[in-house]
Amino acid sequence: MSDPRWPVQTPREGTPPQIDTPQRPPNPGDTGNTNGENGGDGDRRRRPVLLGPFGARAFFVGRMFGVDIGIDKSWIIIFALVTYSLAESFGIEQEALPAAQQWAAEMRWAAALLTSFLFFASLLLHELGHSVTSNALGLPVKSITLFIFGGMARLSREPDRPRDEFLIAVAGPAVSFALFGIFLLLSEILPEQLALTSVLAPLCLRVSLMNLVLIIFNCIPGFPLDGGRIFRSFVCGVTGNYRLATRMATIGGIGFAALLASLGAVIVVTTPEAWINGVWLALIAWFLYRAARSSMSYVDLRDGMRTIPVGAVLDSEYERLSGAMSVAGFARTHPTVPGDSTYVVQTHDILSGFITVGDIKAVELVAREVTPLQAIARPIDSLVHIAPRTTLWDAMQKMEDSGVELLAVSEGKTLFGIVSRRGLFTGFQRLGQSATR
Ligand SMILES: [Zn+2]
After folding, report:
1. Are 330 and 321 a contacting pair, CB within 8 Å?
2. Sheet of 406-411: strands edge to edge?
3. Which among 226, 233, 218 has a CA at the least distance from the CA of 165?
4. How confident is the model at residue 276 (pLDDT cuts 50, 70, 90)?
5. Domain definitions of the chain by residue range
6. pLDDT tens column, 142-181
7. Any idea which fold 28-45+309-435 has?
């Protein structure tokens, strides 16, 4: 559905103000930061801000194959739980052995810690398998975060081609399969005679089995598991219908979540002493259910945003401020503004730049009366530009790829406005709901 006002060339009466081509080129060092909001790719030296799956900041631990690795606080719980249950199970396992061969408590805990560490390292390598393949296919992966339910690779966008989705999805289990084989082999070849290797051999066997469980679990054909993505790539490959394929994989995921939840309930009821396992399964079920639902709403959002051009949501009456106005004057006339608002600054009918609320706040209180807006305005050309016919979806992808929060909408020398990420979504909400019905 296109807005009849658009693409009328002049958003207002008379010729639209011309874009000022700034004399000084934007500083390449902070290109990524020109919009300053989120520290784009330009600055890889700084500790990246990684967000965990629950929205809290994850702890940055390093970079592998160009992918930032983070640990969410919730991961500590699962690490402690896995280590504890390993120590317990090693103890139970050894009860059958003569006392002389049984591991001392310290050794049991050390073995449990090492096994747990090797398991989560395997999980990280699994996620790296996905990420390296995705990067190789031109779909940048921003980061991997370990959290309470495992690992999560944050793709900048979903693969469009079934072939790509299949390759990315299968790469993780493939890495786990290799690890399963390596640890199984190690457990076979490590001699039992030596003190150290007599501990390492059963430990390697355990890690190999944990990788096998990881493969089986991840290959269940339901979103958001790898099996769900493999399933979608097949259905989409055969039918060419991405929505149908997504809906089927989502149903698979929700079905599996329901199964897991009922299994959890049965465990709690039938074996009260192992209630924690039942609760744990129910928690995983809840997480899978939520993730499966969000995969479907992601496709709804994408398909909806692909039907609307940015020009249709752009507020053609965007506010132009006089460059001569002081920062204090702006604050007086705009006492309450949304935090991500952007304003175009105009000097003698020429658009001399733009400012954000962040720029205003950055000016010292004492200097606000004497600082004209044109002094803090940033050049329009430092923004990434898109054409008004660009769809909301492509505009958002452009923001993702460039690591920016603002885009200039222009054609030739005509600026039709500046759009923010929030502006894209509110525009979609305003127009989009009707488009997808
Ligand atoms: Zn995976």
Report:
1. yes
2. 320-322, 342-347, 350-356, 18-19, 414-420, 406-411, 384-386
3. 233
4. confident
5. 28-45+309-435, 50-219, 241-308
6. 899 999 888 888 887 888 899 999 999 999 999 999 999 9
7. CBS-domain (3.10.580)
**CB environment 371-386: b (16+ within 10 A), e (fewer):** bbbbebbbbbbbbbeb
- Whole-number Å distance between alpha carbons of 191 and 188: 8
168 Cα to the center of ligand 1, angstroms? 9
Report which of residues 51 and 154 the model is more confident about.
154
Query: Rounded to an integer, what distance in angstroms lies between the CA atom of residue 251 and that of residue 238?
Result: 18
pTM (predicted TM-score):
0.74
Residues 6+ positions from 293 with CB-CB distance below 8 Å: 250, 254
- Mean pLDDT rounded to a whole number for the chain: 83
Burial class (CB in 10 A: 0-12, 13-18, 19+), 289: buried
Cβ 317 vs Cβ 335: under 8 Å: no
Per-residue tokens: 65: 């194959």
Q: How far is the CA of 73 from the centre of ligand 1 (A)?
A: 21
Contact present, 290 and 262 (Cβ < 8 Å): no
What residues have a C-beta under 5 A from ligand 1, the ion?
Answer: 172, 218, 226
Distance 276 CA to ligand 1 centre (A): 25
Q: How far apart are CA 400 and CA 345, in angstroms?
A: 26
Dist. CA 293 → ligand 1 center (Å): 18
Other CB atoms within 10 A of residue 121 CB: 12
More confident residue, 189 or 133: 133
